[in-house]
């Protein structure tokens, strides 16, 4: 019996960067989602042909020859990418991995709720550093509504600015912390609620007043969030 094995040249492929833009039809302004995939690694493919021939005159000529194909692949791949500005993808794959858990894929999603909470925390930090009036004006939507105890609501950015400039409350510091956030299905509205504390600038270690608040947030054309309605109640009881 004779045997002959023929190997075809190994073909290797280097993985390169892929970046694609998907534009969704929308009213003004259009939404532009970017898909950015960055693969790294290599893929090696080998092809072989195994030919066996049996020199036996007792069997037919057709059966004396047996041909089989040999195929092998070695893939080492690492993929990272983003889909829009909210989803991250990570994939590790190696055909030579010793254990199955070494080949893994990760998918991380950061939605509107995370964005709103981060904005609310930044809003509080701005209030602590620059004052209540500056923070409320900076993070206010143009059509904002501020509900007040013992007074009519302040409607609109102009009315809010005029009121806060006349009553800057420069002798106090107000901070807060969101406890919960939820975004709408449409992705353009959301709300947070949490607790607030008011302290004197002269004695910041002493709490003058504390309570609960709720804020309704509206997504702006640039993707940022600003509060469109804000209200609070004084007093905390369990």
Report on this model:
By secondary structure, the chain is of the alpha+beta class. The protein folds into two domains: 2-109, no CATH class; 112-234, Nuclear Transport Factor 2, Chain: A, CATH 3.10.450.50. Helix content is 15%, strand content 56%. The protein has three helices and 13 strands; from the N terminus they run βββββββααββαββββ. The protein has helices spanning 112-130, 132-138, 157-166; strands at 2-7, 11-14, 18-24, 31-53, 65-83, 87-94, 104-109, 140-148, 151-155, 172-183, 189-200, 207-219, 225-234. Strands 1, 2, 3, 4, 5, 6 and 7 form a seven-stranded antiparallel sheet that branches. A hairpin with a 3-residue loop joins β5 and β6. α1 runs antiparallel to α2 (132-138) and α2 runs antiparallel to α3 (157-166). The termini are far apart. Residues 1-13 and 18-32 have low confidence and may be disordered.
């Amino acid at each position: 019996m004779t045997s002959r094995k023929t190997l075809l040249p190994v073909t290797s492929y280097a993985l390169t960067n892929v970046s694609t833009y998907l534009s969704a039809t929308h009213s003004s302004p259009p939404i532009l989602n970017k898909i950015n995939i960055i693969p790294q690694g290599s893929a090696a493919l080998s092809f072989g042909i195994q030919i066996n021939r049996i020199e036996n005159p007792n069997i037919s000529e057709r059966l004396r020859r047996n041909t089989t194909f040999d195929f092998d692949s070695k893939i080492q791949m690492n993929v990272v990418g983003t889909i829009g500005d909210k989803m991250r993808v990570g994939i590790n794959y190696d055909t030579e991995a010793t254990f199955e858990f070494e080949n893994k894929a990760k998918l991380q999603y950061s939605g509107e709720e995370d964005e709103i909470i981060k904005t609310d925390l930044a809003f509080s930090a701005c209030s602590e550093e620059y004052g209540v009036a500056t923070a409320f004006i900076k993070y206010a939507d143009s059509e904002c509504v501020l509900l007040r105890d013992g007074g009519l609501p302040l409607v609109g950015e102009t009315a809010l600015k005029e009121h806060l400039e006349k009553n800057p409350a420069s002798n106090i510091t107000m901070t807060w912390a969101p406890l919960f956030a939820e975004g709408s299905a449409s992705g353009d509205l959301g709300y947070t609620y949490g607790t607030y504390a008011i302290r004197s600038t002269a004695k910041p270690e002493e709490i003058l007043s504390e309570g609960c608040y709720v804020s309704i947030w509206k997504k702006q054309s640039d993707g940022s969030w600003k509060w469109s309605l804000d209200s609070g109640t004084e007093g905390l009881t369990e």
